[in-house]
């Protein structure tokens, strides 16, 4: 079957394309912006990409068009599909029908940490010899591919609350019907489609309603929004993580790089790894709980986590030039920015730390998170905010409220010049964006030489 994917370079759609190819389909796709790491992965898989949405790419007609949730009415390719009556489906629906049916799905949901936790969980199962399938919204470095079918009933999926398509406004995760579900955390996000936090809580409850009574729900004790979700009704056993929960940790290093795991008061072993930050410690606990549900003993899970490599673009060290270290990070919400900088600060001590932040997500562009931004960067020594031309709110006003030196730049060249003038050997530079950021990482590394 010839499947054409509109919006193929999104992390979800690109991963779905890999699975469709593995199932033996002829897969092609198009996107407005074709950039790594997804474009590189797709080309390596032999999947043909077209830049832009010219309807000519749909002639001759494919057998099925999978329409990404970034597509809307008015898009020329979408209009062509509708006018010609071509068969079409959303990505999550296709996945549910052709990949997840009949499998033991382990879903990782939450505002933050989905990609990292899904990667941890897939790796723990792999390390235990369970050869899981997975679909992850990033490229886990333990696997170097973001999706695969796997050889066993187990399938790990990053379960996103964003909507499925312009014609299906349910959250993607409602399609997945997991048996094991991690609910990592829950805050207001996706201001372009959700009016408020209760609207997102309702979608999370739709997910909880689909989990069987023989399944398992895992969530931290410290998230009021998740407690409200469970209180709406839960028909499934629950295990909790963190303070007062069944799964707890004893930190052995402040930066989170070494900690002891406790289950129901009994020590299970010590994780020592390259990750930092309290958020990753919390991700690890949820991972161990989910892995135990499918039969992986905590001691085996702990051994796997000690060999876990992070996900591309999650505090990924991309260059070291003249003693200046550059990291690429996906953080695009104040909480994620704060926890990431906190973890790095605890690792590097008093070394200079420069944060470069592009407010690029839809919620950021709408200004939904601007009140939380000044507080999120307190662990940096200075911050450079990038103001794209289409930003609809006063970024300079937000920068002025920061307690650390902050400037706003409207060009990559301006950012590079600023870093060149400030950075010295021993400086750590974190670039935070959920997009390609114009290749800033490589340009900056080149300029620093």
The largest sheet has its strands arranged as 8-7-9-6-12-13-14
Number of domains: 3
What share of the residues does DSSP label as strand, in percent? 15-25%
- Classify the helix fraction into a percent range: 25-40%
Number of strands: 23
CATH superfamily of the largest domain: Mur-like, catalytic domain
Overall morphology: globular
**Uncertain stretches of 5 or more adjacent residues:** none
Distance between the termini: 49 Å
Brief overview:
This protein has 449 residues and is an alpha/beta fold.
Describe the protein's architecture and organization:
By secondary structure, the chain is of the alpha/beta class. The chain has three domains: 2-91, 3-Layer(aba) Sandwich (Rossmann fold), CATH 3.40.50.720; 102-306, UDP-N-acetylmuramoyl-L-alanine:D-glutamate ligase (3-Layer(aba) Sandwich), CATH 3.40.1190; 316-448, Alpha-Beta Complex (Protein-Tyrosine Phosphatase, Chain A), CATH 3.90.190. The chain has helices spanning 11-22, 38-44, 76-84, 91-100, 114-127, 197-209, 224-231, 278-293, 298-306, 334-348, 362-365, 373-376, 395-400, 412-422, 440-448, and strands at 2-6, 26-31, 48-51, 64-67, 88-90, 104-109, 133-135, 147-148, 154-158, 163-165, 168-171, 180-183, 216-220, 238-241, 247-251, 258-263, 266-272, 316-321, 324-329, 353-357, 382-386, 406-409, 428-432. Helix 14 (412-422) runs parallel beside helix 15. The longest helix is centred in the middle third of the chain and has 16 residues, at 278-293. The protein starts with a strand and ends with a helix. The mean pLDDT is 92.
């Amino acid at each position: 079957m010839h499947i054409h994917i509109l919006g193929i370079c999104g992390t979800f759609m690109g991963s779905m394309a890999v699975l469709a190819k593995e199932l033996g389909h002829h897969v092609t796709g198009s996107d407005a912006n074709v950039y790594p790491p997804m474009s590189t992965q797709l080309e390596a898989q032999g999947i043909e990409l077209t830049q832009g949405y010219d309807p000519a790419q749909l002639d001759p007609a494919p057998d099925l068009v999978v329409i990404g949730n970034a597509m809307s009415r008015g898009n020329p390719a979408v209009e062509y599909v509708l006018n010609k009556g071509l068969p079409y489906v959303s990505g999550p629906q296709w996945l549910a029908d052709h990949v997840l049916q009949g499998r033991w799905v382990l879903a990782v949901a939450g505002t933050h940490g989905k990609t990292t936790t899904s990667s941890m969980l897939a790796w723990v199962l792999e390390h235990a010899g369970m050869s899981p399938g997975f679909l992850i919204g990033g490229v886990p470095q333990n696997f170097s591919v973001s999706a695969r079918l796997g050889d066993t009933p187990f399938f790990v999926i990053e379960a996103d609350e964003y909507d499925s398509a312009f014609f299906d406004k349910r959250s993607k995760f409602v399609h997945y019907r997991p048996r094991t579900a991690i609910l990592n955390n829950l805050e207001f996000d996706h201001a372009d489609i959700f009016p408020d936090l209760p609207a997102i809580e309702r979608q999370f409850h739709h997910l909880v309603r689909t989990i069987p009574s023989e399944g398992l729900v895992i969530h931290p004790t410290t998230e009021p929004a998740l407690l409200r979700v469970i209180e709406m009704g839960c028909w499934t056993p629950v295990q909790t993580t963190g303070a007062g929960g069944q799964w707890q940790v004893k930190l052995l290093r402040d930066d989170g790089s070494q900690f002891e795991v406790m289950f129901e008061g009994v020590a299970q072993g010590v994780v020592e790894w390259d990750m930092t930050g309290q958020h990753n410690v919390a991700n690890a606990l949820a991972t161990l709980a989910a892995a135990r549900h499918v039969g992986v003993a905590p001691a085996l899970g702990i051994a796997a986590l000690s060999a876990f490599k992070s996900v591309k673009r999650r505090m990924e060290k991309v260059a070291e030039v003249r003693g200046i270290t550059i990291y690429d990070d996906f953080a695009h919400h104040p909480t994620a920015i704060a926890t990431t900088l906190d973890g790095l600060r605890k690792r590097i001590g008093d070394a200079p730390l420069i944060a470069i932040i592009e407010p690029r997500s839809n919620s950021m562009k709408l200004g939904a998170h601007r009140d939380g931004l000044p507080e999120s960067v307190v662990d940096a020594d200075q911050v450079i905010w990038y103001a794209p031309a289409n930003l609809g709110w006063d970024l300079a006003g937000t920068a002025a409220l920061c307690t650390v030196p902050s400037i706003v730049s409207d060009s990559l060249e301006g950012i590079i010049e600023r870093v060149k003038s400030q950075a010295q050997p021993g400086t750590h530079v974190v670039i935070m964006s959920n997009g390609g950021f114009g290749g800033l990482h490589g340009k900056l590394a080149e300029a620093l030489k």
